[in-house]
Amino acid sequence: MQTGKVKFFVESKGFGFITDDETGVDIFVHVTGTNGKELKEGDKVSYEEEDGRKGKVATNVVVID
């Protein structure tokens, strides 16, 4: 599992981006990848990365302390 920080998440649109801790690259996250959990800017998260239609997508996103 990778870790990162939520750069932003637009709840009304259901998507946002996570900045990977190791690479600094922004990864797209859709609400379907959060298992129904709300994400907020600055949340520390762990996630898995998969190939999406337009690039990398974060899945199985979990907020960590």
From TrEMBL:
GO terms for molecular function: mRNA 3'-UTR binding. It comes from the Bacteria. Keywords: Cytoplasm, Phosphoprotein. GO terms for cellular component: cytosol. It holds the Pfam family CSD. Coiled coil: none annotated. GO terms for biological process: regulation of mRNA stability. Residues 1-63 form the CSD domain. Its main location: cytoplasm. It is found in: Cytoplasm. InterPro entries: Ca-reg_mRNA-binding_domain (IPR052069), Cold_shock_CspA (IPR012156), CSD (IPR011129), CSP_DNA-bd (IPR002059), NA-bd_OB-fold (IPR012340). PANTHER family: CALCIUM-REGULATED HEAT STABLE PROTEIN CRHSP-24-RELATED, COLD SHOCK DOMAIN-CONTAINING PROTEIN CG9705. This is Cold shock domain-containing protein. It comes from Flavobacterium amnicola.
